[in-house]
Amino acid sequence: MIQFRLKTTIQIYHKCKDFCKETQIGSGDLIITSGHIYENYLNGLIGEATLVNLREYGSGEPNDKMVESILADIKDNSYRRVIAIGGGSILDVAKLFVLKHISPVQDLFERKLPIIKEKELIMVPTTCGTGSEVTNISILELLEKKTKMGLATDELFADYAVLIPELLETLPFQSFGTSSIDAFIHAIESYLSPKANEFTKMYSKKAIELILQGYQIIVQQGEEARVSIMEKFLLASTYAGIAFGNAGCAAVHALSYPLGAKFHIPHGESNYVVFLGVFERYMRIDPNGEIKELNEFLSDVLGVSNEKVYKKMEELFHSIIPKKSLSSYGVTSEQLEEFTDSVMINQGRLLANNYVELSKKDIFEIYQSVF
């Protein structure tokens, strides 16, 4: 029985220029990034590579229409490597461009197209949350279906994941907060997954520990304290990606997807909104299983009793990013039913990884508890 896989080679550079020089970026490369990253770190270093600025195709979370538009614009370009340099949106979009068959994108995500990898893939994260650089999953909003969906297949594993702490130095505090909370949720959800094992739990626990300890330092010393410990957050994100890439995420992500798709809330933030609601429901259903062991670990890291770990986490997270209710985003009570139906219909892949089984009634009541 396979317990653990890491198909991606991980490299670390302290400066982006060193990465560009050693990788010999140029003709035959497709670079997908943002204008900000290009101007600040890549200008003059990529030769004749084909450059795609994702933000020219739309703002917010990526969707299938954006991918179709990029595909149309580069159809006459020949490339052998795809190099993604950016946050989760850029990494998730770039993964698709290593495939032979991409369009129609909705058909790809519904597994109606053959999945054949024909390009090399290099992933360079510029946030500390996605973990996408070491996973085989691409997440897109499918506009016709009005929700996000994931395509999980080994063909989407990167050949190389490149960690460059320099690229996170200009990350705004809000983006830092939403991305690092996303990494935390990757780690804690994968820890409780029925697919978890001692290998994945090791990565989950280290990610949880680094993030919570980092947050405590920031709360004590102020926002700028993050700069000196950013490499630890970058490592934590990759550790969490390794964990959930093997064990999977679950209900927190499943419940966040309709919310993110409808209201275009950053992925980490939408996860944060429903996180405690899901875990409080887990505790109500079965407080004595794997979650008890998890709470003991959290208790040690946070320095509080087992009974106070979630209250302490909420206080700590709120210090990084103030938590909002669903209604504050404009969600109506009528939409809770719509979101619940969407989760039950579209997110079976994620719900299979739940700590305990959640019924339709459970999911609706979780939404109500954070409304």
UniProtKB/TrEMBL annotation:
It holds the Pfam family ADH_Fe_C. Keywords: Oxidoreductase. Residues 178-370 form the Fe-containing alcohol dehydrogenase-like C-terminal domain. GO terms for molecular function: alcohol dehydrogenase (NAD+) activity; metal ion binding. The keyword S-adenosyl-L-methionine does not apply. Residues 27-165 form the Alcohol dehydrogenase iron-type/glycerol dehydrogenase GldA domain. Belongs to the iron-containing alcohol dehydrogenase family. This is 4-hydroxybutyrate dehydrogenase. It comes from Anaeromicropila herbilytica. The lineage of its organism: Bacteria, Bacillati, Bacillota, Clostridia, Lachnospirales.
